Amino acid sequence: MQARRRIGSGLMSLLFLVLGLALGSNGFAASPRINYLLYCSGCHLPGGQGNAPNVPTLHDELGLMMTVPAMRGYLARVPGSAQAPIDDVDLTAVLNWLLTEFNSETLPEDFKPLSVDEVSAARARLLADPNGYRETHWKPYDFQTPLTEHQ
């Protein structure tokens, strides 16, 4: 009886191993929205509104930033994105999701979604001073803007 249990247990372990290998790491991949909620909403809040002056909103302005080539990689370089515990494919999906979810009205008409290669290259160059980079390539962050419209 014990031998049958061991064999059955061993077969179940083998089955789970084979299923895990067949499905790979993407077999149980979360959606971009779920990854946003897991890895971004702790600071930026579930609706992307942020918390001025410390955490910027993710609404509207990011779409405008996409018109400036130096800002396309910015979102992947800020510490929260660059150090998120997800791979480049999932981070790319999250960034494209938040751009279309929170910035659809301000994205350029000819906007091309961020590519995995673009995000991978940008993510490898973590920004030590995101606000300084932003000021140099875009404009200073308005730390006085209160939370209002997107609450």
Structural overview:
- With 151 residues, the chain is mainly alpha-helical.
- It has two domains: 1-28; 31-137, Cytochrome Bc1 Complex, Chain D, domain 2 (Orthogonal Bundle).
- 52% of the residues lie in helices and 0% in strands.
- The protein has nine helices and no strands.
- Helix 2 (32-39) packs across helix 7 (88-103) and helix 7 (88-103) crosses helix 8.
- The longest helix has 22 residues, at 2-23.
- The relative contact order is 0.15.
- The model is unreliable at 12-25 and 146-151 (pLDDT under 50).
Show unreliable segments.
12-25, 146-151
Major sheet summary line: none
Shape: globular
Cα end-to-end separation: 62 Å
- Tally of separate domains: 2
CATH class of the largest domain: Mainly Alpha
**Structural class of the helix and strand makeup?**
mainly alpha
How would you name the CATH homologous superfamily of the largest domain? Cytochrome c-like domain
Rg, nearest Å: 20 Å
Q: Indicate the percent of residues in helices.
A: 40-55%
In total, the number of strands is 0
Strand content: under 5%
Question: Mean pLDDT, rounded to whole units?
Answer: 82
CATH fold descriptor of the largest domain: Cytochrome Bc1 Complex, Chain D, domain 2
Task: Give the SSE order as H and E letters.
Answer: HHHHHHHHH
CATH architecture of the largest domain: Orthogonal Bundle
